[in-house]
Design brief:
Elements lengths: L1 E6 L6 E7 L2 E5 L5 H9 L5 E6 L18 E5 L2 H4 L2 H15 L14 E3 L2 E6 L2 E7 L8 E5 L4 E3 L16 H12 L5 E3 L9 H27 L4 H7 L11 H15 L10 H10 L2
Parallel strand pairs: 3-4, 4-5, 5-6, 10-11
Antiparallel strand pairs: 1-2, 2-3, 7-8, 8-9, 9-10
Helix pairs in contact: 3-8, 4-5, 5-6, 5-7, 7-8
């Protein structure tokens, strides 16, 4: 088995492929056309038969338009989670900032194959296990190759950003609990540094689970005490995990999201990541 990974020049984003027996399964293959082409060149002639999209966030769905036709696999919730208008707005802003000239309008890819809880892909001699992994988004999945104990973790277990609870805190906690039961030798996060250091793997897992537990406890206490959203944000200031300058903003969005979902006095559609996405793509 060969695992190919390439990190983008943008957002510490990882694209890659599992390669075996002349076949390749590409995972979230790239941001720009040049990066997708560079990834394809590393396949050394292996045929890209399958493309796995780990979830429907705009940066994770850009690769297929730059590749020959292949079977696209995603979770069953992917089509419902997909926001074509929002993705086009986010992509337009990104490409304008980076000076990318688009030749045709972007059409987000739709999957050929979906699954609900889990499925297995055969790639050469490999058995890739795809598992639903909600929490960051409702449609997120992970890819696990058991022979090498390799996990493509999508947007969890990063070393450059704290957990983004866009979908649901309880689901995120359950996803991390499931991952904790796996034998892990190699981790590739959607954003951040791949690692085969088992102590680093454990550190990320423990830190993320501790952060989510602290977030839950602080927000639920604020809601129980009848605090306002701003008071809840202030009460959660001591929740500790930070990995980048952007994490203060992400933490606030997490607090807003969990506050609304926990029965706090806020409209879930007008706070947290829902608000931030609307502001970024609908103005």
């Amino acid at each position: 088995m060969s695992l190919v990974t390439r990190q983008s020049a943008f957002m510490h984003y990882n694209a890659g492929a599992f390669v075996s027996g002349g076949e390749a399964c590409l995972v979230d293959p790239g941001i720009t056309a040049e990066e997708v082409a560079a990834l394809a060149a590393e396949l050394r002639g292996a045929l890209p038969t399958t493309i796995v999209l780990t979830h429907s966030d705009w940066d994770h769905v850009l690769g297929p338009e730059h590749l020959p036709p292949a079977t696209v696999v995603a979770h069953a919730d992917y089509p419902a989670c997909l926001d074509p208008a929002g993705i086009r707005a986010a992509l337009t802003a990104f490409e304008a900032h980076e000076g990318v000239v688009r030749e045709r309008p972007f059409e987000p890819p739709l999957p050929d194959v979906t699954f609900a809880n889990s499925t297995t892909l055969g790639i050469g001699d490999l058995e890739l296990r795809l598992e639903h992994a909600p929490g960051h988004t409702a449609d997120m999945l992970t890819v696990y190759e058991p022979a090498s104990a390799t996990l493509w973790a999508a947007d969890v277990l990063s070393d450059v950003e704290i957990p983004l609870v866009v979908h649901d805190l309880g689901a995120y906690e359950t996803t991390l609990a499931r991952i904790a039961e796996l034998e892990l030798a190699t981790l590739v996060p959607g954003h951040g540094t791949p690692t085969s250091d088992t102590r680093e793997l454990r550190r990320r897992l423990d830190e993320d689970r501790r952060y989510l537990a602290e977030l839950r406890a602080a927000v639920e206490q604020a809601v129980e005490e009848g605090r306002s959203l701003e008071e809840a944000v202030a009460a959660c200031a001591t929740v500790s995990l930070r990995r980048s300058p952007e994490d203060e903003t992400v933490h606030r969005l997490n607090v807003e999201k969990v506050y609304a979902d926990s029965g706090g006095d806020a409209d879930p559609g007008e706070v947290g990541f829902a608000r931030a996405w609307k502001e970024a793509t609908r103005t």
